[in-house]
Design brief:
Order of helices and strands: EHEEEHEEHEHEHHEHH
Mean pLDDT: 90
CATH class of one domain: Alpha Beta
Strand content: 15-25%
Helix content: 40-55%
Structural class: alpha/beta
Radius of gyration: 17 Å
Strand order of the largest sheet: 2-7-1-8-9
Shape: globular
CATH architecture of one domain: 3-Layer(aba) Sandwich
Length: about 210
């Protein structure tokens, strides 16, 4: 086992909760953070670049890397595979860098098994209605895909209790403040053991 000096922060969220926006905002504000770039077998969207947004690979290449033990976690989501590079994460941690992973709840569960010292954060929308509005406003998916994403999002939201912290992404600046507190080793108000937070979350996911 390598000795890790940095901290690993694992983010997950249902589709449309604003996870990517929040993660990019915190990385922009704190350039010392290392944003782990995931492998994926899906095709790039118009505004995405290989090596920046994702590491785009074929299914054959993905399976080769997986079989070599390069994947810290992987999952199949919307008929495509996604994974985190173990070597990339371990190098950053060994260099005393804090690392952010942006993955799904299944991947977060796998990372916890490999690196139980990681800090896990789940991002929620302020309501199911707002989640649906955000998905439709993207205008990148067909109505059928949006309905599927909504169903899957509701299922994903049921896993919030598996995480150390929950951030309700209603106001971006407040969500960033909550996240900064977690990165600083604080964040009692977003802890899943906080009763006020639990009541707020249960109103959303009920």
């Amino acid at each position: 086992m390598q000795e890790h000096n940095g901290h690993l922060f694992v983010f997950a969220a249902p589709s449309g909760a604003g996870k990517t926006t929040l993660v990019h905002a915190i990385v922009t504000k704190h350039p010392e953070l290392r944003f782990s770039i995931s492998y994926t077998t899906r095709k790039p969207r118009r505004n995405e670049a290989d090596g920046v947004d994702y590491l785009f690979v074929t299914r054959r290449e993905f399976m080769r890397l997986r079989d070599q033990g390069e994947m810290l976690e992987y999952a199949e989501v919307f008929d495509n595979y996604y994974a985190t590079s173990r070597s990339q994460v371990e190098k950053h941690l060994a260099d005393n860098r804090n690392v952010i992973l942006e993955i799904d709840w299944q991947g977060a569960r796998q990372v916890r098994e490999s690196m139980p010292e990681c800090i896990t954060i789940f991002i929620l929308p302020p309501s199911v209605e707002e989640l649906e509005r955000r998905l439709r406003d993207r205008r990148t998916d067909s109505p059928e895909v949006i309905e599927r994403r909504l169903r899957d999002a509701l299922s994903d939201m049921s896993h919030w209790e598996e995480f150390d912290h929950v951030i309700i992404n209603d106001d971006l600046s407040r969500a960033i403040d909550d996240l900064e507190a977690i990165l600083a080793g604080e964040g009692e108000s977003t802890s899943t053991s906080n009763e006020a937070l639990r009541r707020a979350v249960e109103r959303i996911v009920a």
